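User: My instructor asked us to take a sequence, write out its structure as tokens, and then describe one feature of it. I'm not sure where to start. Here is the sequence I was given:
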Amino acid sequence: MSRLSWRWWPRNKRKSSSDSEASSRREKDSDRRRLLQALSAMVGGGALAAMSRPAQAKDASDLPPPKRVLTGRDEAGKSVFKSVDVTSKVVEIDSNPGLTFYELYMTEGVPRLTGLEPDPMLKGTIGFPGPGGTMFRLISYPPKRPEGYKPPPGATLESGLRELSEKLPGMGDVFDRSAPGMHTSDTIDYGIVVRGEMTLELDDGAKVHLRQGDCIVQNGTRHRWRNPLPEPCLMAFISLGGKRG
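Assistant: Let's start with the prediction itself. The structure tokens for your sequence are:
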């Protein structure tokens, strides 16, 4: 029995030593992982802080304008970049400071896709497309107004809607005068929250809170948008013109 014990003792000792070394390595690896996690959190926190600084701007003018990349074809039929810049049609609403429309592109009927078409925004814009037409735009909504906020001198609901229709033909006509903000258009609207947060309210008072990346499909229904945060909200919309059933 003693010989058997003698034979196994060194082997068990080596195993114990190996286990100790493995345990030590695991602890070191764990320490390294914790350090990396801490550094990642610090870097991530810094990145998040940097990303959040523009979002605290008071209106859209403090944020970098979104870039629009427009492609087409050259005379040889090869694909080319026709424009890599801010859209040629940016609309700011003076009666509602911070409300800015970036009119990106629009079509009527079935697009021909020659790639030689001129930028449609050079000739102006519209409020909403007609049947079969499309409108692609970004809208920067101003922050939630602080307590005691006063609109610009002379600005009223009517003057604001009139300005909307002058700068975005027909848009002011779809708004309900009896319920400020409520409006209905003969379109299906695909909407995406690009930056910030937004609240969508419908006829029955039901609301849904949307965060960055959330999407909506607006089926020609009466609705209202409200920015719940003290920072701008940027949303993208693609409107498809339809016919009221």
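For the description part of your assignment, you could build on this observation: Residues 6 and 12 are 10 Å apart (CA to CA). Try explaining in your own words what that tells you about the chain.
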